[in-house]
Amino acid sequence: MPEYEVRLLLDPAAVLSPQHELMDTVLLAFEMPPTVTKLNVQFLDTSPKELFTADWSARIRKTENQDGFELTYKKRYAITGSDIDVALTAANSDGFKDGNSKYEAQVEWGYQKQTLSISRKKTVKDHGNSGMNLPGTSNSRKMLISEAPDKFDNWRHNKRGTGALAISRIFGPVLTRRSIGTWNKMKLYIEVWPLVNLSGTENEYVVEASFKTESFTEALIEQSNLATFLQSKGWFLPQDSLKTQLIMERY
Q1: Record's Gene3D superfamilies (predicted)?
Q2: How many domains does the chain have?
Q3: To the nearest 5 percent, what fractions of the chain are helix, strand and coil?
Q4: Between the CA of residue 149 and those of 23, 122, 134, 232, what are the distances in Å?
Q5: Rounded to the nearest 5°, which phi and psi values hold at 234?
Q6: What is the CATH number of the domain that holds 136?
Q7: pLDDT 10s per residue in the chain (251 long)?
Q8: Which residues contact 142 (CB under 8 A, 6 or more apart)?
Q9: CB-side exposure of 41: number of CA atoms within 13 Å?
Q10: Are 44 and 168 within 8 A, CB to CB?
Q11: Prediction pTM value
């Protein structure tokens, strides 16, 4: 059974200060402290985006005040007409079965779009990297190749995944800030993502609110409730979040 992660966008012009920080009114609305947690994120793929085109991603993330790097290998399945079972059946036919306890199934539930993701996460020690820095291309390749799970590596034929990683480059990194509060007794995250704009001249900002639940009904109800609340405040951006796609397009 998948977990549900509701993701809704906020209008950066309405919720960010001139310093690109969440305004106090937003922090108060969700009982968020002024402190933030930094996350540095980068993806590896070939220049033609072989992994992304095949609905895979290989990500390295460093979280402030946590030891090591988090590696995530994720396979995405589009959900059409809110029919989650069809996507789950497709994932099952690809070998992602109930017994695969090392893989996490999640429905990413946006404004209008839903996607099923199957993820495998691993943690690798941080050897000598300072602060929030992520490894360069060579070390990133080695790390992701070394830890690659079989289902990622052999997704079309043997060593396809690691073969792509061997000639990959970095997309990113993006240094994100996360604030944590509450929404109807659930933990709510708001992340501010500075992404290079299309012309490459400056950053534009993606602001995303998200919460997780194991209940389909709760996800359905609270997605609507949160969207309505954000609309009432003038904070809502009625679009689906495409952070990974934007990173793959702009870096």
Answers
A1: Hypothetical Protein Pfu-838710-001
A2: 1
A3: 30, 40, 35
A4: 41, 10, 21, 45
A5: 75, 25
A6: 2.40.320.10
A7: 899 999 999 999 999 999 999 999 999 999 999 999 999 999 999 999 999 999 999 999 999 988 899 999 999 999 998 899 999 999 998 888 766 678 999 999 999 999 999 999 999 987 766 688 999 999 999 999 999 999 999 887 778 899 999 999 999 999 999 999 999 999 999 999 999 988 888 999 999 999 999 999 999 999 999 999 999 999 999 999 889 999 999 99
A8: none
A9: 22
A10: yes
A11: 0.93
Q: What tokens appear for 209 in the block?
A: 């609110």
DSSP state of 238: -
Print the domain residue range for 167.
3-250
What are the tokens at 229? Answer: 């609340």
Cα–Cα distance for residue pair 56/47, rounded to 1 Å: 14
Q: Which amino acid is at 240?
A: D
